[in-house]
Amino acid sequence: MxxxxxxxxxxxxxxxxxFGGYKVGDVADDFSLKGTDDKIHSLSELKDAKGYxxxxxxxxxxxxxxxxxxxxxxxxEFEPMGYPIIAINPNDPSIVEEDSFENMKKRAKEKGFxxxxxFDEKQSVYPKYGATKTPHVFLLNKxxxxxxxxxxxxxxxxxxxxxxxxxxxxxxxxxxxKEIKPxxxxxxxxxxxxx
Length: 195
Hints:
By secondary structure, the chain is of the alpha+beta class. The protein has five helices and nine strands. A seven-stranded mixed sheet has the order 2-1-5-4-3-7-8, with helices on one face. Strands 6-9 form a two-stranded antiparallel ribbon. The protein is globular and about 45 Å long.
């Protein structure tokens, strides 16, 4: 039953991304976005990366907040293997003030974010990816080919009840040169707040 549900979610996500955004196998464009350290960052600056974990997230969303500690732990686990996390806030702060750049800096400091936290101020990056939720994950290989799209794991509400660590499993499979299964899952979270 669980496999059937995953297959249906994958099919729905594939249909949705067909209308805009990257699909598994597409090559993602690089970007230049300001981080909470007040510097401009891009994927190409991460010279030693074997791949990239791009996570669209934000400050205000309850789902995004539930995943903050897990994202910190994922960075600790996989950045030393060559798979750094690049978190991007895609939201318009005029809609949700909590997602302003200044509040991003405060949140990063409060939580001790150990990963890049960037601001898609012009909202030009998330539509290319086809991100619709916060959080929404895109795992890329070294050549920026999209290898996995979707959720971090199968239980947003309770980290202790997670049974499938989709992102962690995908990174391990990519690192080992194996097929990623599933390569698409349904992202669970808040809708992105567009201008």
